[in-house]
Design brief:
Layout lengths: L3 E8 L2 E8 L3 H21 L5 H46 L1
Helix pairs in contact: 1-2
Length: 97
């Protein structure tokens, strides 16, 4: 069983104590830094009234990135499948000649 760590992450001026697997620490710290950077960017770019609005905008941004990667992956997968089918047909045609 993996060691558990107790860490504290600060996001939007709040501290979140977490108990995590040691292997998760780097990813969580990087994610918290990205969120903090995005919060600063949104606060500088838009007239934001409270942290809730900024956090909602961050959540939307990250969710959109995940969805776009899924769409891109599906598109790439479909293109790859089409190329493999075409290659398979070429090989079958050559082998049957």
């Amino acid at each position: 069983m993996e060691n558990k760590l107790k860490i504290k992450l600060s996001i939007a001026d709040r501290v979140y104590p977490l108990t995590i697997a040691a292997s998760q620490e780097e990813g969580l710290r990087k994610a918290a830094k990205k969120i903090e950077a995005m919060i600063k960017q949104f606060e500088q770019s838009y007239a934001v009234r409270d942290k809730q609005d900024v956090l909602a905008m961050c959540a939307l941004q990250f969710a959109a990135q995940v969805e776009q990667k899924t769409i891109d992956k599906d598109t790439n997968q479909t293109a790859l499948e089409e190329k493999l089918k075409a290659l398979d047909e070429l090989l079958k045609a050559q082998l049957s000649s």
